[in-house]
Design goal:
Blueprint (H helix, E strand, L loop, with lengths): L1 H38 L3 E4 L9 E2 L17 E3 L9 E3 L1 E2 L15 H4 L8 H7 L4 H4 L9 H14 L3 E2 L7 E3 L7 E2 L3 H25 L3 H5 L4 E10 L4 E8 L4 H14 L15 E11 L3 E7 L4
Helix pairs in contact: 6-8
């Protein structure tokens, strides 16, 4: 009996040892699968600020009359555009120039103009008038004060707007910036259009939850800097917070905007890097006394 009991104990120990060994090796086999699965999860990581490219992708202002390329500019957009003086619209909203330009009539005495301002009927009538009488057919310039009022009226009813972050550009009635044509502009524009909706909604939620938010936001600019990784199919892979705005709720609102807006299908093939990812840089800004801004920086491509 002792012999059988001893044998049974040895069998139990052997079976237990084999079972433990199998469980251990099974665990080792599952580790790579677990890690692979973890890589598929969206990661939000806070990084220290780093040196970033200075080129900024701005919204299209409409097709320019002449697509002359500026010598130097930090702005990239849909078209080449060269302006004498850079300005930005003073009102906040999606970038659009809506001001109706009222042409001022030239005062010959003030401007030493030699051209006569005649319409078609006046010109036909003038052909049958003596030279001395033709002078009376010249149209008198309209009152400049009235023209100014007309311009202001149109401007107030339908003002030009922009939501590009341009803190060092002079405010005016419309946005006019030197820019160079950017090959991937349409992809960036599609992303920004989707982000704008969610970013605005997220800010409204914060404003409802935090009564003091409006006062806080009006005292300084709050800038959340993000670096984004997309997969080659446009799905969101990683969000890196490389610089905080100083307000966690605003940082989270920026991150959520990307999560909500994704995916961004059909990224340009030339933007896909060797590791199969697309890297973007995006800033979300609350600008003092102006409202929200979205600043797009050129990614490393």
């Amino acid at each position: 009996m002792k012999f059988l009991s001893s044998k049974n104990n040895k069998d139990r120990i052997l079976i237990l040892s084999i079972t433990i060994s199998l469980l251990f090796h099974a665990g080792l086999l599952l580790i790579p699968l677990h890690l692979k699965k973890q890589e598929e999860v969206l990661r939000i990581v806070r990084l220290d600020p780093e040196t970033l490219p200075e080129k900024q992708v701005i919204d299209d202002e409409g097709k320019p009359l002449s697509e002359e390329t500026p010598d130097e500019t930090r702005f990239l957009s849909k078209h080449n555009r060269k302006v004498e003086q850079e300005t930005k619209a003073r009102h906040s909203g999606p970038t659009q120039n809506n001001n109706v330009q009222v042409k001022r009539l030239v005062d010959p005495q003030e401007e030493n103009a030699t051209k006569k301002i005649l319409n078609k009927d006046d010109m036909l009538l003038a052909l049958h008038k003596p030279e001395a009488q033709r002078q009376t057919l010249e149209k008198k310039p309209e009152n400049k004060t009235e023209e100014s009022l007309v311009e202001k009226t149109f401007s107030s009813l339908n003002p030009s707007t922009t939501d590009d972050y341009l803190p060092d550009v002079e405010e005016s009635e419309e946005t006019a910036l030197n820019s160079k044509e950017f090959l991937f502009y349409s992809f960036y524009a599609r992303i920004k259009e989707k982000l704008r909706v969610h970013w605005t909604d997220n800010l409204k939620t914060i404003m409802r939850e935090q009564q003091a938010y409006r006062t806080i936001a009006s005292n300084q600019d709050y800038i959340t800097k993000l670096r984004i990784q997309l997969r080659d199919n446009g799905e969101l892979k990683n969000v890196f917070v490389i610089a905080s705005s100083g307000d966690t709720s605003l940082d989270n609102a920026a991150v959520r905007a990307f999560e909500q807006a994704a995916p961004f299908p059909n990224p340009p093939k030339n933007m896909i890097e060797s590791d199969g990812s697309v890297k973007l840089r995006w800033d979300f800004i609350i600008e003092a006394n102006r409202g929200s801004r979205i600043k797009v920086l050129l990614s490393r491509i």
